[in-house]
Every structure is written in C-alpha cells, then in structure tokens.
Predict the structure.
Amino acid sequence: MSRGHNTLENRRKLTLFGLLLPPSVFLAVFFLGPLAIMIVYSWLTPGLYGGVEWKFFHLNYGRILGWADTKYERFDPVYIEIFLRSVKLAATTVLLSLILCYPVAFWVSRMSDRMKNLVIFLITLPFFISLIVRLFAWVLILRPTGFFNQALMGLGLIDQPLEIIFTGTAVVIGMVYVFVPFMFLPLYASIEKLDHSLIEASQDLGANRLQTFFRVILPMTLPGIVGGSIIVFIPSLGNFIVPSLLGGAKVVMIGNLIEQQFLSARNWPFGAALGMMVMAAVLVLLLYYIRIVTREERRSGGSKVAEEVAA
Amino acid sequence: MQGILRIESASKSFQAPEGGVIRALDNVSLTVAHNEFLTLLGPSGCGKTTLLRAVSGFEDLDGGEIYIDGQPVSDQPAHKRPVNTVFQRYALFPHLSVQRNVAYSLEVRGVAKAEIRQRVGSMLELVGLAGMGARKIGQLSGGQQQRVALARSLVARPKILLLDEPLSALDKNLRHKMQQELKTLQHELGISFIFVTHDQEEALVMSDRIAVLNGGNIQQLDAPEELYRRPANEFVARFIGESNLLDATVVSVAGARCDVVLTDGTVIRDCPVNGLKRGDPAKVLIRPENLLADLGQSGSGERAGHEISGTVSESFFAGTDYRLVLSCQGLPPVRASLRAGPGTSHHTIGEQTSLFVPHDAVHLIPGNGVPA
C-alpha cells in the first residue's frame, strides 16, 4: 500500500521536475549567467579601449561611493547625486501613480462585472502601441509649442509657455504614464477582494470615514499598495528611455548613466558597478516586501499555513 | 408606549435589477420596549434585514422616521447611532487580534487605554473567551468567532443590539447552545436585542415578542405562544409550526363559542368565535399535535362535533409520536402527530379512523385566509 503510494508520489515529483527543468535551465543560462558576469566585471579593471582587464579593481565602486586613488580614478559626487535624483524621481512616480490609482481602483471594484472587464482591458490597451511612439507623443504634448501649453495659453491662464519638457516634471509625467497599469493591477486585486461588510462593521462600531480608512481599509489593502509600489519603483529607478526622451541632457537618471558607460564611454566595469547600485536598492526593497507579505500570511491564520506545510 | 426604539411608518423601495420596484418596507410601524428581546421573523426578501439596516443606519428610509430612545435618527450616520450590529458572517477584522477587535469601538471613541483593557477583559470573560485576547481571528472556530462578534458589539454598551441572522452559519448543536447563551446574556445586560432570523423555531425559543414579516408588512406582532396558538392570518399560521388549515363557514354563534361546517359537511362545535358572525367564511387551524387518537366511541354523543374521520394514507413512527396523514373526502389531507405512549399503537395504511378534535385546539382565522 505504502509502496504504491510512494511510486505514485515519485512519479508526480518526476513529472514536476521534468516540467520545471527547461525554464530553470533557460533562466540559469540567460539570467543568472549574465548577472554573474556583471558582478565579476564590476570588480575588474576597465580596458583601455573598452572591454576588461582581468585584474581585481575596487575603484569602480570607489568612484561612486567616495574612496578613490587619484592615480587611477577620481571620486565624483555627481554619481551619488544622479543615483539619489533617480531614487527621488522614481519615488515621486510611485507616489503619484498610487494617488492616481487608489481611488480609481475603488471605483472600478464597485462596477458591474462587465464594466470591470472593460476597464481592465482599457488599462492594458496602451501596451498594444510601441512605447517609443507613445513617449514621442508626450514630447509633442509637453514641448513649448505643444498641445498642453497652447491649451493653457488659449485659456489665458499663462502668457508664456511653461518649461516642462526636459525637466524632472516631464520625466515623472512620462514614467507615471508608462507605469500606471503596473500600479493599478495589484492595487485593484487587493481592493477588489476587500470585504465590504468590514467597512460597515467599522462604521457600525462608531468609526467615521477617516478612522475606517486608516484602521481597516488601508491595512487590508497594504499588500496591494506595497506590491504595486515595488513593481513601479524598480523599473522607474533603472529607466533610461523616459529620461532620455523627456528629460533630454538636463535630467540624467542612473539608467542613462549606465547606458552611456556601456555604449559611449565603453567603461564596462564602471557601468556594471553602477548597475550593482541599482540592484542593491531593489534587493533591499524586495526583502522589505517579503517581510510584509509573510507577516500578512501569518496574521490571517498562520497556524493553518503551518499545518499545511507540516502535512 | 415610549420604548427604546420606535419605528413610524417606515417605507423603503428598491429598484429591481430586472426593472420594476420592490417594496422592501411598506409602512411599517413598531415599538420595542426597554430590555426586550424582539425577533423579526420572515422568509428571505420579507424586509426584515432592510428594517434592521434602517435602524443601524446603512439604509435610508423613503418615508417614516426611526426614534432611538426618543431621538429621531434619520439624520444620524451609522457611526453616530447608539446601536451595534452582530453581522451575519461576523465581519471580524482579520488583521486585528481578538483583543483589538473587541476594543475597536472604544479605540475609535478615544477611551483611555487602561479602561479599554479593563472593559475588553470583562467582556471577553462574559462571552467565555477569557485569555484568548491575543489570538488571531483566523485561528478561531465558528462558535468562538461568534462570541468575539458579540463581545465587540456589546463592549460600547449600545442601547440596542441588532443581530442579523448571527447563528445561521453554526451547526445545529452549537446553534442551540448559542440560543440559550444569547437569551441569558440579554437578561444579564438588560439591553434590548433585535434579532433577525428566518428560523421560526429559533424565534419561538428566544423571543419576548416576534414580528412576523412578509412582503414588507408586519403580519403579526405578538408573544411566541400567542403567535403560535392564535395566528392572525393564514401566512402566520403556515409560517410558524405545522398546521392543518381547513376552509369552513360559521353556522351558529353562541356567546364566545361558535359552530363551523367544513367543506365535506363535518361540523366542528364550540370553537372560539374570534369576532366571526353567522355565515362568515373562516379558516380552521388545527395543529397536528393537538389532534387526539380516536378511542373507539365514534359517533357517540360526547364526541359528536369534535372529530374528523377519514382513511389513513400515510403512517410512520417518529420516536415521541406517530405521524399520520388522514385522507377525507372533500377536505385537504389532514396531518396528525399522536403521542406515542404506553398502550398506543400504530395506525395501518388504509385503515378507517376518526381523530378527536378538542374544542380548545381549534383556532378560527377570519376570511378565506387572505391577509386583509
């Protein structure tokens, strides 16, 4: 009896293994491999004409973080400035898309099923058009003679065109536009499953709207907020298309810097080191997210989960 | 009567999804006394939940007014009304511990921490959950969640506790236990309870008074015994308990008593008159358990006018009693539960028999049973 059970169990494991093998191999070769190369390169000496020399070199990081040997490389605070500016722009993007999406997600969650599906479809619709085309459309909208300034001047609100294009504002507008769907979907998922009777219970127990929001709605939708924020923050932080089109030469983000090091300056180890900075920031965020999610699971009947794991 | 709750001519209509209008509450008036356990009983869609939600503040009335302790509350939002609700599926906050769930209404009112701890502690003790404050909601059984919900809605000492079918998710044994506990709790606390259910047995066991609702109207508002013995109309008679309802006409009246004739010509004598006059149509209500087995003197003087005769068409033994169905020419089938004691025996199917109708076992419902 137990033997039959065992062979069945083994066969199941084998099937699972067989199914998981190809994607695992693919990821190992094409994701972990290049990542390892980048980590190694970031500690190597830049070659004179591009490429690398296989000699340990820590000044790639020194240039960024403040230790330098003037014989080879100089510390320049501009890299940290650019990194912090990128964090600021990405954080602003997260905040604005959160403020934009949260009430909309609430509104959509109250719609009929048909309308819900339609709205979700509409939100994913921009993916059907090339990102470059959409961003050039924003160039046309935001430039001094563009639609936005023309409209404001036509209404008599301003006399001179506002300088929006090639500023941080333009970059944030562009990134919010690009990443709003990534914020909306996880937010919507957690708001949709929010039990409305909990809101009524809160009111019934004497909580006003504000108290109900902060004591029930916000904590119950926190996983969606954190999830959406991370999914938006990561690609915003490393983004280089939006700042290069809407930020021009004035607003450089760390993504542009990395791109320049690899393609123009041909200093691969330094580019790799800059890339590691972005990775480190992202890793810290992911660890924080995992902590919140596991705490959430423990909260909603962690004993059950533990039992299932034990069984 | 100046009760804790007075509802005056409450009306509420909903737009039906398929078009048309549903009248959930049709001019409902009701007064609940201090310290009363009142049940709103009715089938689904009868308006009982709408009425409860109107009191708690989650439903605006189209017309009428609700007074809690003498104060009109139509302008008060739900969070300002001195009532609390136990929800059907409890609606406990899954992200908070038992302690924090119960403390919720005190926390939002800014009660001092020490007082909160003390009141939550004694409340948990009262519902039998002492020492469970640190538990997560997901770790509790259905019955324990029920108790947390009770504690949570009682801790702020509401003037009225509203209960929206709170026992329907529990299994039968636990439900009986909770029925008794609720009743005891209400006695101890001296708070008026308004309890919504579609379970007539539950309503009979727990209530001081029951309001039977149907189609947005109160059909009858009475003590359980009165409701069972003397239902105001056919709906109430059918909804509460088992019943035989037979069409009849009043043939003679003598004081508080009258004689009626059934559609098959059988005469039942000495029925309580219930305001009927000679020639009036009526429904005769006889509860199955009030019929008695024939003792063999059928047709003799004493029994005349107090029996129904027919053929046994169904018969089975159900522990405490025999259930049988009597088919009579010209009458709908008559059901009877006969006490199964020593010396009694089973009726066989096809047997001719008569059942004795004690005169105090008959209740006459005026008219053809159509609610006025």
Remarks:
- The two ends of chain A are 19 Å apart (CA to CA).
